[in-house]
Amino acid sequence: MALLTSAAIQGYCDYTRRRIAYAKYKIGSTYYKVPIESVKTSSAGVVEISFKIELSSGSGEVSEVQLYDTDSQLWLSKTERLKMDSVAEGFLYVVQLNISEIMS
User: Fold this and answer.
1) Which of 9, 24, 56, 69 fits as disulfide partner to 19, beta carbons 3.0 to 4.6 Å?
2) Which candidate, 42, 38, 24, places its Cα nearest to that of 98?
3) Phi, psi of 2, deg, nearest 5
4) Partners of residue 20 on adjacent β-strands
5) Could you tell me how far CA 76 lies from the centroid of its own chain?
């Protein structure tokens, strides 16, 4: 039996939406800070955070993505391997967070 109500789970989703401030991605040894494009909660209760990954010149490989909160604290770090072959190429990167209660 779940202890948290659907209102409580929605509260955690809303809190996450308010706290996420910006993203960073790493190409080579350089991190690039980018704004969050959108933060939405799906009908299934999944928080979806999206941001753009774009090259300013040349090509490269994104090796890590990160999310930060409004206090500049790291909330998420994920190793990636996204190859970008030209400046015309870019990604809309979406992080999906499923906030749920797990009984143990």
Assistant:
1) 69
2) 42
3) -70, 140
4) 69
5) 7
pLDDT value for 7: 86
CB 10 within 8 A of CB 45: yes
**What are the average pLDDT values for consecutive 10-residue runs of the chain, which has 104 residues?**
82 92 95 96 85 85 96 97 78 91 80
Q: What is the pLDDT of residue 95?
A: 95
Determine the Cα–Cα distance for residues 27 and 61; give it in Å rounded to an integer. 6
- Has this prediction a pTM greater than 0.85? yes
d(CA 90, CA 54): 5
The C-alpha atoms of residue 23 and residue 53 are separated, in whole angstroms, by 10
Q: How far apart are CA 55 and CA 81, in angstroms?
A: 15
Round to whole Å and give the CA distance between 80 and 30: 14
